[in-house]
Specification:
heterodimer; A: 257 residues; alpha+beta; eight-stranded antiparallel beta sheet; B: 215 residues; mainly alpha; 11 helices; 69% helix; 0% strand; globular
């Protein structure tokens, strides 16, 4: 081994990641070469400086409690959500039973004071939380859109999320308030994502300030622990709900042409 | 509501790593509130995917993998960050190695140069590293993960881990030396005429040369 080789692998050596054979060769060279020995000692020292300067920290005292409550909350929502079946009449019946059992004990005991007119966010998050079985399945936007043709009185064009790992999996008839709606089922990286399409009207948006996201003007809100983003395109409203965070939601929305 | 058995199990095994998760989150976000949020969201996600955790594998590494993914998705504006990292890689290739004298002066326990100002300079320089580099250095130097574990956490090949560590340490050393020279604590420049210039940690190349020399 020569000096150049030591210089090349000095970090791998001090990190203890060289093979035993390579490490022996380095050490053989270090015995003969004070300059390389000094380099290795310096790198050791520097690694130690990083460790002590950047250092490890202790979590704040309240964080453990916060995490535990977040976990309890998440489990509460997930129990309701994943207890729901994915298809079939029997399953739908079971859903009714599950809801009847779980809803009163978990969702009902925490009545939130509702701001007037949070209707859209509530309806859409509700659709997302309680995924009913799809009436049509498939990832072909045109075919799923056509299925709604004689069922709702507006054109349903399932949005395409360009260059995002989002896939259409199906749809069913739904409602937002007293309006007909198309409930579209998507998956984002294997996690459920809901899009509700309905004809725009005076359904309130909870007084949220609109934000420009890509080419869309978006109202953003939360309900039932899920995020909801709503925008209008050609007189039709699109509402996306998922457990993604706001920046991810906005990225998805901006990917819709 | 009574916690499920799954949640109880999860809390027992996963909350042991709270300090490490918070530490890494704080280094990544550089903000206490954001770090706390990131840690909480990581635990919620980890609980949801707990069924997929393989027993016998490193739970801390698994949690950190979820955390770093969430951080990248949430805080990183992909394009901007990529540019930053590219610039960083571009500037770090000349890869100066400190001279023997500079190394000696920096380390000299009598002169205690690392006690005050330079330590702050090192922390500042660390905070200025691009996210991916900061992440790799924290995992390796603060939490002592192996290259293989880091590669799994950040979902990159081991070669990338090696190269990031190498470049990040060189960049930190350069900044530290600049500060030390500016403050008159070290009396020599960065380039060492006798030191060979290397472009990156490259074991494969070394092994090829060794084979060539042996044959």
């Amino acid at each position: 081994m020569i000096c150049k080789d030591v210089h090349r692998c000095v970090h791998v050596y001090i990190d203890g990641e060289l093979t035993p054979q390579d490490a022996l060769e380095v050490e053989g060279h270090l015995e003969e070469c004070p300059r390389c020995k000094q380099l290795v000692e310096f790198e050791w020292w520097f690694k130690h400086q990083i460790r002590t300067s950047v250092g490890s920290v202790q979590a704040p005292a309240d964080l453990s409690g916060c995490v535990r409550s977040s976990l309890a909350r998440a489990e509460r929502y997930d129990r309701v959500r994943y207890a729901l079946p994915r298809g079939g009449a029997l399953a739908a019946l079971a859903a009714g039973v599950v809801l009847a059992i779980y809803l009163p004990s978990w969702l009902a005991p925490a009545p939130q004071p509702r701001a007037p007119g949070r209707a859209v966010f509530d309806y859409v998050a509700e659709r997302h939380a309680h995924r009913l079985p799809p009436e049509i399945t498939g990832d072909d936007e045109a075919r799923v859109g056509t299925w709604f043709q004689d069922k709702v009185d507006f054109a349903v064009r399932p949005p395409r999320f360009r260059n995002e790992p989002v896939q259409l999996v199906g749809g069913r008839i739904s409602n937002v308030g007293d309006r007909q709606a198309a409930h579209l089922f998507y998956e984002h990286n294997g996690r459920p994502l809901t899009v509700v399409v309905f004809q725009d009207a005076d359904i309130p948006l909870g007084g949220t300030q609109p934000v420009q996201v890509g080419s869309h003007v978006v109202h953003f809100g939360q309900s039932r622990g899920y995020n909801v983003a709503v925008w209008n395109q050609g007189g039709v409203s699109y509402a996306v709900s998922s457990d993604l965070d706001q920046p991810d939601m906005f990225r998805l929305v901006s990917s819709v042409p | 509501m009574k916690p499920s058995r799954k949640r109880r199990e999860f809390e027992t095994s996963a909350l042991q790593h709270l300090d490490a998760l918070y530490g890494v989150a704080l280094k990544l976000t550089r903000d206490e509130q954001n770090a706390k949020d990131l840690v909480q969201d990581t635990y919620v996600r980890a609980l949801r995917f707990y069924d997929r955790f393989e027993w016998g594998t490193n739970m801390r590494a698994w949690l950190l993998r979820i955390l770093t993914n969430m951080f990248i998705n949430r805080y990183r504006q992909a394009q901007k960050e990529k540019q930053l990292a590219d610039t960083f890689l571009g500037t770090a290739t000349h890869d100066a190695i400190l001279s023997t004298m500079a190394m000696g002066q920096l380390r000299d326990p009598e002169r205690r140069v690392m006690d005050g100002m330079l330590r702050d300079a090192l922390i500042r320089a660390f905070d200025e590293l691009p996210d991916e580099f900061r992440m790799t250095v924290v995992l390796a130097d603060v939490y002592g993960f192996s290259y293989k574990e880091i590669a799994e956490i950040i979902d990159r090949p081991i070669g990338t881990v090696m190269s990031r560590l190498h470049r990040a340490r060189r960049a930190l050393q350069e900044k530290l030396l600049d500060q030390a020279v500016a403050a008159g604590l070290v009396t020599t420049g960065p380039a060492s005429p006798e030191a060979p210039q290397t472009s990156t940690a490259n074991l494969a190349e070394y092994r090829t040369q060794r084979r060539r020399r042996a044959s």
